[in-house]
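#struct-help
A.M.: can someone run this one for me? Single chain, 450 residues.
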Amino acid sequence: MLSSNCAISRSTMSASPLAKSMASFAIRAHRPRALQAIPTLVTTVPRRSAAVAVSDEHVSHPAQQPLVEINSVKNEHTRSALQDAVSAHGPRNTWTREEIAAIYDTPLMDLVYNASTVHRRFHDPSQVQLCTLLSIKTGGCTEDCSYCAQSSRYDTGLKASKLVTLGSVLKAARMARDNGSTRFCMGAAWRDMKGRKSNLRDIKEMIKEIRGMGMEVCVTLGMLDDAQAKELKQAGLTAYNHNVDTSREFYPSVITTRSYDERLNTIDNVSQAGISVCSGGILGLGENKEDHIGLVYTLSTLPKHPESVPINTLVPIPGTPLGDNKPIEFKSVLRTIATARIVMPKSIVRLAAGRITLSEEQQAMCFMAGANAIFTGDKMLTTDCTSWDEDKDLLEGWGLRPMKSFERETGNPEMVDSAVETDLEQEGSSALFGTERSFERVKRETGTSA
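D.P.: on it. Structure tokens below:
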């Protein structure tokens, strides 16, 4: 296999403008000129659990301990976790929290460089999936999610509505398709589908009609049992969104009406029905970096990695408990995206709610770090979204193109061991998404029920 720098240099001959800039950026980021003479310093920071043994003599005389030697000892475990991930031939779901922490804590330029390398191995970096999300039933939800404008527990000025008509949904889907969106998502504000047989029947008809338009279809309808998931599969549903929101540890600070394990049960039901899983989280809820690591840990150790991982940043809604939260630092968003890309290499990583607050340059950095999907259109449920025209200009300006429906292209062939990749494809989903692991085991390994 070629070295990453060599592969990047060769691939830029026919690459898109963004791919060329990624390659140039990656090489410069990986070995800054000022540090050419000190290569061991251009490494990664250690995970928190790694202990560094330093003698009393060295403690008494810190100037006598070579800095290069200290950094070399500190970075041993981090380099191992990162190198293992970057050189892997496919996804794995046996990550430890310590390994993910070591990757997350990598110096940011190095982290983005390695994430872009992984991204180019498993995806076409010039492709971005365009998704449009429509609210088909707004407000009146009985859950107490602290961030949500649609909870009936908070005075946000949002009125509850009934399920929208089939005609209005198809009109919105046609508009999305005509503006370049290839996945149409629908969300309903309720806890679960119990006692909603007529609503489920209507939603299945929506799914069938939209699939007939050549689009992928995703819905988010709260908790599902296995029978409901199978009905949606039979209707032609492409993907089901059910976020875990944050780490297991921080989750009770945000939601008390639905447990973490109930979310994992719905994800299990969806996966068992043969529907692609869309599951991610929200940054800016008041959590810390340990919770970003915990979020990625939960997702990357599922029996199968989610087909898509939406990374949301909180849009504070007046009237909700988190309505006064301050925006999260962009570096934390970038680190989470890059870490998700490295440990879930085949998943689509989606810039979701809150993208409208990011500058064009920040979005480009996210694309470099492995994001390859966005929500686009006038609205994203109840919050503002970047318009189709703005996103067309964004993609064109950075040499990106919309991903076609059901299109999943492999990245640069020079950076993939094709023989091993073929073997993985032939082995089936367990090879593509990790070894077979039960959801009960995931629950045990990520902690007790919330």
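A.M.: thanks! The radius of gyration is 22 Å.
D.P.: also worth noting: The CA atoms of residues 31 and 37 lie 10 Å apart.
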